[in-house]
Amino acid sequence: MNRRNDIIYEVVAALAAADGSDPGSLGYTLADYVDPTVIERLVASNTASELSFQVPGHEVTVTADAEVFIDGVEYRTGRQSPVSTSERTVGGDRETPDQLQLQRFFTNLPCTVYQSRNEEGWPIEFISGNCHELTGYEPNAFIIGGINFGFDLIHPDDCERVNAAVDQSIENETPFSVMYRLQTANSTEKWVLEIGMPLFDGTEPLSIVGAIVDLSDVGPEQAQSVPSPGRVNPSR
Fold first, then answer.
1. Are 33 and 14 in contact (CB under 8 A)?
2. Is 101 in a helix, a strand, or coil?
3. Long-range contacts of range 12-17, CB-CB < 8 Å, 24 or more positions apart?
4. What is the pLDDT of residues 130-158, one digit of tens each?
C-alpha cells in the first residue's frame, strides 16, 4: 500500500475489526482523538518511531513501518496477528537483551543523547527518552510532532553562537562543545552544555550526534571548566 495515503484507513479498519464491525460502522471519528496528519507524517518519516493514542475502548499504536497495534496486538487490514507490542522494538523486530540494555543505558545516562540531520534547525532523527526531563517534550514531539531544537528550544539570543560552533565543527571535522540557554515546553530557561560531532558520508556532513547536559545543578560558571573534546572523527 501507499503507506502515507492508506494508513488512516488501515487504523480505522483495525479498530473496526477489534470491535467486530465494519469500518463504516465505527461509532466515532478518528480525528476526534488524534490528528490524522500526525499519523501520515509518522509513516512518511523514515524513522524508527511510533505513536500511541487512546480511542473509546482501545489503545492504538502506529509505527513508522505502518504497523497498527490495537491493545498491543497487531492488525493488518483487520487481520489479527500474534505479534504484540511487548515482543518488538519500535522498528518492528523483537528486542534482544543487548537492545534492551542499550535502551536502558541511554535512558539512565545523566544527559540526553540525540542524532539530528545536518539541515536548518537540525531536525531530530533519534533522541533518548529522558529528553522529557530536560525539555518537557516526549521523543515523538521531535520525531513527528514538528518540535525543532534549532527553532523552538535554543534561546534566540544564543542561536548564532550555537550555529557558529556547529559550523566550525563541520569545517574542521572536529567535535564541538557549546553552552546555551534552552527553552523548555513550559517556557522555563535552562543552561545546558551540548557536546557533539558531525558524521560524514565521504566529504558530506549528513548528521550530528551528541549529548546535552542540564547545568541547572552546576551552573554555567562551573561548566566553563569542562575541557573541549579533542580532534576525532571515527566515521571517516
1. no
2. helix
3. 13/75, 13/77, 13/78, 14/60, 14/68, 14/70, 14/75, 14/76, 14/77, 14/78, 15/55, 15/58, 15/60, 15/70, 16/78, 17/70, 17/75, 17/78, 17/79, 17/80
4. 888 999 988 878 876 678 888 899 999 99
State the CB neighbour count (10 A cutoff) for residue 2: 8
How many CA atoms, within 13 angstroms, populate the side-chain half-sphere of residue 203? 1
Residue 45: phi and psi, rounded to 5, are: -85, -15
Contact call for residues 136 and 146 (beta carbons, < 8 A): no
Q: Is the pTM of this model over 0.85?
A: no
Copy the grid coordinates of residue 216. 541547572
Q: Cα(172)–Cα(166) distance, rounded to whole angstroms?
A: 10
Q: Tell me the domains of the chain and their CATH numbers.
A: 3-87 (no CATH), 97-223 (3.30.450.20)
